[in-house]
Design goal:
Order of helices and strands: EEHHEEEEEEEEEEHHEEEEE
Strand content: 25-35%
Number of strands: 17
Helix content: 10-25%
CATH superfamily of the largest domain: Exo-inulinase, domain 1
Number of helices: 4
CATH topology of the largest domain: Jelly Rolls
Radius of gyration: 19 Å
Distance between the termini: 40 Å
Largest sheet: 8 strands, antiparallel
């Protein structure tokens, strides 16, 4: 909020930070404040120049790149495991990461998700959908825990990034698993949609302690102390691939992750 006194405009600290956040979300310049992360005990996971510290998928053939200071993915990796993983493993941590969808693959009908994690339906029981930009990616919080047979091979530690009405930060498989208690499924559903539009940068802060996670997106708490049953105690962090090219049409498949990441900082909480 701005206050006017004696013919001059006075800007509060909060208003200045809000304006800075808007400016950074829409520009292509490097983010500021790296020295503050270092002072607070964070270390960088991305140097802005190359993929040092990350495992480039074997057989990727150059689809995970660094472009203009950001990790860039075009959804066309030819590797078997297409996800970009950190070389190090982590237990409890705080993570800061900026991300954006550089472009989207048309529109798709996304379901409306209620606060309790269920889908909103009409009088006939049909899901109510909304056309939204078609883009999808995610962050694996401690390796891909999908080998847990309890969840049928699902990636239960994935934090979703996408354009659906419920917003990014959702823990899709935690919410979608009917065996989970109602309160667990509800906590895995974002409290508010805080995403910026495609082509604009988003700022995300993640606190993962034991099997509990809190996510702040663009200054708003979207997930608070949500439980991830069965998550590994330690594992690498992964930037998810998604989509690919249709073998017949040559077009991008639905939900393809034309995504970029930058400004990645982490602080261990268990060492």
């Amino acid at each position: 909020m701005m206050f006017v006194a004696e013919g001059k405009t006075k800007m509060t600290k909060g208003n200045l930070m809000a304006l800075l956040s808007v400016a950074l979300s829409s520009c292509c310049c490097p983010p500021v404040g790296e020295e503050n992360f270092a002072k607070d005990g964070f270390v960088s996971l991305f140097n802005g120049k190359d993929l040092s510290g990350w495992k480039i998928p074997e057989g990727d053939k150059g689809h995970w790149l660094v472009i203009d200071g950001a990790i860039d993915y075009d959804a066309q990796s030819e590797a078997k495991d297409k996800t970009l993983w950190t070389e190090e493993t982590f237990g409890n941590y705080e993570l800061h990461i900026d991300w954006r969808f550089k472009s989207t693959a048309g529109l798709f009908p996304a379901p409306t998700i209620l606060p309790d994690g269920n889908y909103k339906t009409d009088a006939d029981g049909k899901q109510i959908t909304t056309l939204v930009p078609n883009a999808d990616s995610g962050i694996y919080l401690r390796g891909d825990s999908g080998d847990d047979p309890t969840y049928g091979g699902r990636s239960i530690d994935q934090l979703n990034l996408w354009c659906v009405p419920v917003g990014s930060g959702e823990l899709f498989w935690v919410r979608h698993t009917k065996e989970n208690a109602p309160e667990i499924r509800a906590a895995a559903t974002p409290k508010v949609r805080a995403d910026n539009p495609p082509r604009h940068w988003n700022s995300m802060d993640i606190n993962l302690t034991d099997d509990r996670v809190t996510v702040v997106l663009n200054g708003k708490t979207v997930i608070e102390n949500a439980q991830i049953p069965g998550i590994s105690k330690e594992g690498p962090i992964g930037l998810q691939h998604h989509g690919g090219i249709h073998e017949v049409t040559g077009n991008l498949l639905p939900h393809s992750s034309l995504v970029e990441f930058r400004n990645i900082w982490i602080k261990r909480l268990d060492r």
